[in-house]
Specification:
About 55% of the residues lie in helices and about 20% in strands. Helix 3 crosses helix 4. The longest helix has about 60 residues.
């Protein structure tokens, strides 16, 4: 009936209002948006989607053009560059916990992903789809203008440098382990060769 339909629509609006309020509260725990005025936060909460992802899902893929932007609400993600684990981010979902954001290149024009981000277990996220990034860019500009864009560029550059350093360290460790393995193999080969020589000498002395 018409009355039932109106009740259902009213219930859905109330549910949407609760969800939007939750998203808005989460955004206040994101450093990038924490200083936004109330109207901008309210608009942001309408643009983000609450999503859940299972383990092994790639949120970002290295070298692909940035599109979606994420806020990690709970769970664990791993940041990987050139097949090397760079960093693990974990959010417990506690009150007032600082929430990390991922894929900030999506808020700038023409930025490729500097690393891949993959879920490590079930994760709850806020996701900003590509079609909404331009509006968020405008909100960021209104909130801080060129200074915000400068900070984003600096953040991306800093994360890229950090990833390069960690990758280089990991590669150095791998090379060191490889060299150590080669030395062990070489030593073992020498021992085996000596044993074979002794065995041949003993065989030659036997009547």
């Amino acid at each position: 009936s018409e009355e039932d339909r109106e009740d259902a629509e009213g219930g859905q609006r109330a549910l949407n209002g609760v969800l939007q309020g939750y998203i808005r509260e989460c955004l206040t725990q994101v450093q990038l948006f924490s200083s936004f005025p109330a109207p901008s936060l309210t608009r942001l909460s309408e643009l983000f989607e609450l999503t859940e992802r299972g383990p092994g899902v790639y949120l970002c893929v290295q070298d692909e053009m940035a599109s979606d932007f994420f806020v990690l609400l709970s769970g664990t993600v791993q940041i990987i560059k050139d097949d090397t684990l760079i960093k693990t981010l974990h959010v417990k979902g506690e009150a007032n916990e600082q929430l990390p954001f991922l894929g900030e290149g999506a808020l700038l024009h023409g930025k490729a992903r500097v690393a891949s981000v993959v879920t490590h277990g079930a994760c709850q996220l806020l996701e900003l789809r590509e079609q909404h990034t331009r509006e968020v860019q405008k909100l960021l500009m209104a909130g801080g203008g060129n200074e915000v864009q400068k900070q984003l560029h600096q953040l991306i550059a800093a994360r890229a440098r950090q990833a390069e350093v960690i990758r280089d360290i990991a590669m150095s460790k791998q090379e060191a382990r490889f060299a150590e393995t080669i030395n062990k193999v070489s030593t073992a080969s020498s021992v085996i060769a000596n044993l074979q020589v002794r065995a041949q000498q003993n065989a030659a002395r036997s009547p």
